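ugh ok fine here u go
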Amino acid sequence: MDCESERLIKNQLKNTNDFKKFKKLIDNSKAYEVPKSLTGELRPYQKIGYSWLVQNVKYNFGCILADDMGLGKTLQILSAILHFKEVNSLENKSSLIIVPPTLLSNWENEIKKFTPELTYYIYHGTNRTFPLEEYDLILTSYGVIRLDLDIFQDKTWFICVIDEAQNIKNPNTQQTKAIKSIKAENKVALTGTPIENKLTDYWSIFDFVNKGYLSNLDNFKANYVMRIERLEETKTLEKFKTITKPFVLRRLKTDDNIKEELPDKIINDIYCSLTKKQIRLYNAIMEGIFEDLEGKTGIERRGIILNIITGLKQVCNHPSQFLKSDNPKINESGKMELLITILENILDVDEKVIIFTQYAQMSKIIEQLVSKKLKTNVLFLHGSLTQQKKAEVISNFQENKEFKILVATLKTGGVGLNLTAAQNVIHYDLWWNPAIENQATDRVHRIGQKSDVMVYRFITKGTLEEVIDQMSKNKLNLAEKAISNDETFITEMTNEELKEALTLRL
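structure:
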């Protein structure tokens, strides 16, 4: 770091001791050994991010990990916390992880998969109770923090992590004020979109991780916002980049050094939870089904089972699909809430996405809710379109920059098409045969594709979808890929096997 950069940062830090710590942070920068108990492998760029997080926490500087979506921000911060556990720095201290409610299941899955040595507790739901014993991690949501603020203010956390940090971009909301009032030795923000609309978004997140570093909001507006956004002063912009650079790490999928490390197709299993309404419907379907099956054989028994499976899958998608309601709402489905979150991130980085579902009705629900919520046109590709209309939809998606989102039924959009304008694929519901799913993905991941393709597979935790996912993966592991293309094999299960496979596991 040159002398001028040091001078600028010294002015921002103001406190002499803070600047001494900063000098140590810079001068003693090093690569840390990956935690021994980590059960996954960190890619080279993730090792850099992990070491950077450890270094900042070690010297008590807050920081923003702003990697592009899909580059593994969750894994990097969990690895850093695991490091401090292995070097005995936690000393019975807990870290607080604050996430959108739709991502709680996904965080839980990542902890179980990669850092099983970290103990965790999820504080969420209507009947939530705060644990008396100490855990390494307490997971909760933004809304719960606002509602139960007193509980969280009662202690000083080792690290307070906020995921999808753009949730505090507005400094004037009660939610933002509540999050910023949490006491922690270290604060880390995770976001793929640090600046959504304006520089004040950035200020608000920075004010959480390193309070006062960018001065108060009024001074920031006068010194930076006015000069950069309105007057377009290059010198001020460079100064801003200099003073924020040590505490922000952002890598993009398009970066040359990242592209070399990434596979050309990155598959992400994304876990979501059922809403209360979905739980009620799921249990209602399961109630009494085994009495209905008693004494049934052959075609009759298979028909009953297939109807039950279809109903459960529809409930996991959205209650309105199962109930055939004309008035669906986003918050009725955990999967739909998650979809909106991911789509917001995709649109923020100006990429395109295809959403696959098995059901035409679900496609319509997605189209309706997404277009209304995100105020954007959503293209819809389905079997009842004429060939001319299909060609028009595909042409618009491939060539028109205004159309970012395409919803397609698996049978219509999953074969014989070239959809390389997209960089993202979302499988809203899972198919029993992985070959069908892969076929659909390969509409995007094929010759002519110039970008890495991010694939998101939605799995509803504790439901039939976990069973489908496991069966699908087992099939992929078989030496022979000549497998059934439909669901009929599950109909041959005994009642006990069915009960184990279908019963809700909360």
